[in-house]
Amino acid sequence: MKIAIIGGGAAGFFSALSVKQHFPMHEVIILEKTTKVLAKVKISGGGRCNVTNNQLDSIVLSKHYPRGENYLKKAFDIFNVQDTFNWFEERGVALKVYPDGCVFPLANDSQVIIDCFTKEAHRLHVKIEYQAAVQEIQIEKDHFILKTRDQSYSFDKVIITTGGQPKRNGLEWLEKLGHTLIDPVPSLFTFNMPGNPIATLMGNVVEKAVVRVEGTKLIGRGPLLVTHWGMSGPAILQLSAWGARVLHDKEYQFAILVNWLDEQKEQEVQALISKTIANQGGKMLGNLNPFPLTNRLWHFLVSKCALSLELRWQDLGSKSINKLINTLINDRYEVSGKTTFKEEFVTAGGIALKDIDIRTMESKIVPGLHFAGELIDIDGITGGYNFQAAWTTGFIAGKGVGN
Asked: Which of 295, 324, 339 is the C-terminal boundary of a domain?
């Protein structure tokens, strides 16, 4: 058979290679609309490529996807994290697991992933057509006609892997075929805090923080980075993923509450302050920081409480102590807008999962048409989860075209 892969990204290449792995005689052509493939792989993870996450329990793994959890539980039965490790290592790409569970190539360079894919594609005779943006898809009795600006192609089966689309109109051609669309909205974005003095601390990192969106049950945990425009880091990105639709509905105008001390409660902080006063009460607030915060952040928070850095710990009154505790574990910030890294954008939304057969990634609406990757209404939090979804759905789609 002749198989088209529309889109030369992570899911597209994995789908193409999966087709050739399962059906070596099939002819596979990747149609890429730009002049280069795997662009997102190249820049992901700061140019290192966070290949997957070292969560080998597929049930636990699936809980890291705000959209698609139940669907992926079944998909991971077919291709999971261990399969990803095996796939890359069998092709000479050594992987390294970091303490936070993120998995990168041992070489710490995304180019080794790109080289692996392109080398495999060449070895298996996968063809790649550049500047071949598909403008129309026509369905004949037993085949598909794909039309680009310059050419018309005929295929037996088609796998669509065009990635997340920032706007609905990028998906409407699939809606015309009868598919249900879930409106795309941004996920994995940072929070803008224009004019907030916290920005003077740009570059400061708190390794363990908890961030909540005021008035909701949304919560993010992990490292928090102060930037020149507001806040970023895994805690913020995680929060933006789980809250993608809620925050979109709020038009990105909301307040967050930050616990700079992770999960510590009021009583625990009170006890530590009492201990500090008892043992080192003669020292000034500015010279003694008993918390896992940088001195710059500590001084900022003390000043935010309208306390002098030269005030001695033993001279803190109960009202000042309460104010300090509240600022440490319940610090409020107004958010006005977001920053999305356009090259790495992730969207919530896409083709509705109810329209896709998980066993083959085949459309239930159009037989012979398959999907893989972020085009589907599946997205994960930061940490390698989105690439794992691309490998899994791509593998299943490639295997599914022969059924």
From this structure: 339
The model's pLDDT over 44-82, given as tens digits with 9 standing for 90+, comes to 999 999 999 999 999 999 999 999 999 999 999 999 999
Q: Taking CA 156 as the corner, what is the angle to CA 393 and CA 18, rounded to the nearest 5 degrees?
A: 30
User: For residue 166, what pLDDT is reported?
Assistant: 87
Contact 103, 53 (CB under 8 A): yes
Query: CA-based Rg of the chain, rounded to a whole angstrom?
Result: 25
Indicate the residue among 303, 318, 339 that finishes a domain: 339
- For residue 358, the 8-state DSSP code is T
Residue span of the structural domain in which 166 resides: 2-186+341-400
Query: What pTM value is reported for the model?
Result: 0.94
Kindly state the helix (H) or strand (E) to which residue 334 belongs, with its residue range. Answer: strand 331-336
CA distance 9 to 32: 8
CA-to-CA distance for 211 and 261, rounded, in angstroms? 11
The tokens describing 80, both together, are 């999971």
Q: How many domains does the chain have?
A: 2
Nearest-angstrom CA–CA distance, 293 and 299:
10
Residue 119 phi, psi (nearest 5): -65, -45
Question: Do 40 and 131 fall into the same domain?
Answer: yes
